[in-house]
Amino acid sequence: MNIAEEIERRRTFGIISHPDAGKTTLTEKLLLFGGAIKTAGAVKSNKISVYARSDWMEIEKQRGISVATSVMGFDYKGIKINLLDTPGHEDFAEDTYRTLSAVDSVVMVIDCVKGVEQQTEKLMEVCRMRNTPVMVFINKLDREGRDPYDLLDEIEDKLNIKVRPLSWPINMGKQFKGVYNLYEKKLLLFEARKAHLTDEIVEISDIQQPELEQYIGETNALKLREDIELIEGVYPAFEVNDYLSGELAPVFFGSAVNNFGVRELLDCFIEVAPYPKERETDQRIVNPMDKRFSGFVFKIHANMDPRHRNRVAFVRVCSGKFERKKNYHHVRLGKKIRFSNATAFMAQEKEIINVAFPGDIVGLYDTGNLKIGDTLNEGEKEIFKGIPSFSPEIFKEVINLDAMKSKQLNKGLSQLMDEGVAQLFTYELGSRKVVGTVGHLQFEVIQYRLKHEYGASCRFQPVSLFKAVWIHSDDKKKLKMFVDSKNRHIARDKDQNLVFMAETKAWLQMMKENFPDLDFHFTSEF
Ligand code: G4P
Question: What is the pLDDT of residue 46?
Answer without folding.
Answer: 47
